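cache lookup: miss for this entity combination. No prior model stored, computing from scratch. Input as submitted by user K.M.:
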Amino acid sequence: MKIAVCIKRVPDTETRVRIAADGASIDESGVKFIVGPYDEFAVEEALQRRDQAGGGEVVAVALGPDAAQETIRSALAMGADRGVLLKADRIPADALAVAKALAAELKDGGYDLVLFGKMAVDDYHHAVGPMTAELLGLPCVTAVSKLALEGGKGVAEREIEGGLEVVEFALPAVLTAEKGLNTPRYPALKGIMAAKKKPVEVKPAALGESRVAVQSLALPPERKAGRILGEGPDVVPELVRLLRTEAKVL
Amino acid sequence: MANVLAVTEQRDGALRKTSREVVWAARQLADALGGGGTVDALVLGAPGVDAAGSKLGEVGADRVLVAEDASFARYAPDGYAATAAAVAKAGGYGAVLVAATAGGKDLAPRLAARLDAPLASDVTGVGIEGGKLTATRPVYAGKAIQLLRLDAPLAVVSLRPNTFVPGSAARGGAVSKVAASAVSRVTVREVKAAEQGTLDVAEASVVVSGGRGLKGPEHFALIENLAKALGAAVGASRAVVDAGWRPHAEQVGQTGKTVSPQLYVAVGISGAIQHLAGMRTAKTIVAINKDKDAPIFQVADYGVVGDLFEIVPRLTDEVAKAKAG
Amino acid sequence: MAPRFEGVDFYDVGSLLSEEERAVRETVRQWVDDRLMPVINQHYLEGKFPLQLVPEMAELGFFGANLPEEYGCAGLNNVAYGLIMQELERGDSGVRSFASVQGALVMYPIHAFGSEEQRKRWLPQLAAGEVIGCFGLTEPDYGSNPGGMITTAKETKDGWVLNGAKMWITNGSTAKLAIIWAKTGALEDPSSIRGFIVPTDTPGFSARDQKGKLSLRASDTSELVLQDVKVGKDALLPGSKGLKSPLSCLTQARYGIAWGALGAAMGCYDEALRYAKQRVMFGKPIAAFQLQQQRLADMLSEITKAQLLVLQLGRLKDQGKVSPQQVSLAKRNNVDMACDIAREARRLLGANGILAEYGAMRHLANLESVYTYEGTHDMHTLILGEEITGISAFE
């Protein structure tokens, strides 16, 4: 089975965010970069599906700066077979521009499955996966929490408000992974060593114009300091009074 | 450029609460754009759904366009995207707004790709600057706020639920039918209802969340009772979801849902950064915890220290009294 | 829920590591957070080694990680090996001891002194955790003086007969395989010491858990008794000759321990720092008080020095240039400073510091064993003294 997994190099979620001098991006000094956590579910799924199918190829694709080769190597260390870096010094804020570059790369790859994480934990767009699917003209299911594949067809489950949607589709298809789809493996130490020898192709990203610009990035306004009203249940009537009259939410 | 299309969402033939928010936001945007732009609301659903759209004039819809098809009873990703794209192309719109619900987060990118339009997702504010659409949105798990400028004659924007609280802006809201394009590359075979079948934590305007302080899944009844009294959704911290006490759909936080309710009550939750990331934009935060040094008290507007097993039932009583009286 | 460990790296030592070395460190660190930390307190209190974690550790390649790939090992360099030990011991010294024994004291001698058949037969199974091994050198009356051992191996027509007793043997009761060091000649002759691969189910071999330990409780420590244990000719490690052979294994283990102790110190420091920032007393966090800041500053200084020390030691080892005395210096320094840091961290934690919920006291107790084993602190002092002055002060 031939599977492409699109991954992104993102700051670790524990990062303390500081704004860079340009006022529109984060200060990257001291920031640890990782494979996006949702992308890891996608990589794991790809590896499991390849192995269940008795073989094939998992290709890890990333769009990003040169340092994203390290991100690709993490996927290779998990077990992906080769990598492709679409090199771009800055990842555009325009998700569609990114999707176009990815679609151009994936178009002729003959992939049975193209997997993404449901979103990137830096920009929270939730967009590149389904956009890429549209550009490729492929069926797409987003935020997949459970997947069954058989004989060229798939059934996916996704969480919606108040329930679970069960969606059917035929391969080839694009899926974006939700937390809980599987349990991503740690890169085994042998895998880390093997990753060094797996091929990573680097080529310039075919990025067109970006029609979304980050005008500014700022820290959120400080919440006004609140107060502890007191101890024990006897404080409750006062709390309710304040919620009514002061906060006006009751 | 001045017209705005608001794509609504229905469930079982009735419009979801977020639909009024989207139409209202569209109204505000059209007015800001000036030039007497119209707001059209698009309703997609099974035949007969036109009745659901009848009140959208109240929140500013000039027209309500209805696309009906048997396959539209439930969200049909390709059909909705194709239909909405066709309507969007035909109407000379400057912006298409969608609610960033589970369905909306799926629909908006597909729409943007079909329209070859830039997208801003899950935004908490929209505006105009120098004739271009701007969007404010939280990023890095809410640790920073981004202001985006979208540079195209048509843009797609998805709006964070519960943020654009509708006022009233009486407009015509005349209902008319438009063509439905029932293409499908994927088929929604069924929807398994969640056991509780109640309000979703990301949509509700009041959320009551429980954490490890509840000591066990059986005690969550306390949270459910308070939620019922408040008309709230039940949320949960990651710890209790990981422990299997509550379903993942209720999880609030970095790896769960990000919520922006009017009122968020955190019970027995210490306030780890990952949890705060999911609820720090709530308008009012109440924290109940036995540890007065718990980090949650640093973000809470009102805190009560003490035994939640005594405080929460008392709060449930007092709320019920306040609502009745 | 415990916060994830992010490491301690005041001087950006991470930038001196290769990408693979950082990736190795990351895998072990995450595994320890996800799989070891949730269960270690319980195991420590119950005095049980978390045996159920061995298959996962094996699958990730933690055992004999610096041995060649052809034997099923990860083929890492010595710095990466050290980082594994660092991250494991940040979790618990007992768990790191398991890995040290398996890798440096069982797999290493088979690789260094064994025949190709022995290597092929045992190393892949040991790497996979399917066979657990132990290292039988120390005896009840011969600890710091292993050359005085009285375990004997008499050659027979078909092989060897071993007699004797060993003590303080990590993995002794769980092991399927024991590397036993015994004198093949006169008891006065330490040059007759040779190594033997002894399956623990051989008649005459028995192991008994040493009870009542107040340190390294999450580790299997056992006595071994060999009573007319008959093994075949193929049990002998042909390359082993004299005390030098087991000592070279110890040098491997000591190298890993120098890194491991650093990990324990990092864990204690990190926990103490988080606690100090959160714990409020007299209206402010205790991190605001000068005496606590001094504790933390002292800890960080020692950790930073130790980090650079073992990194260079690892680079020297990778260049084939390292001496046992250089390893002694690092083991002695790092374990000693880790003992101090664990104690100071325990004190900073106040009353909470005596609870198993916090790692400091467990580390403190464990590190007392680490101070004593693999060459006591005092022995390493004399090793260095002899190296520096040219004069032996052992006797």
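stored under new cache key. The radius of gyration of chain A is 22 Å.
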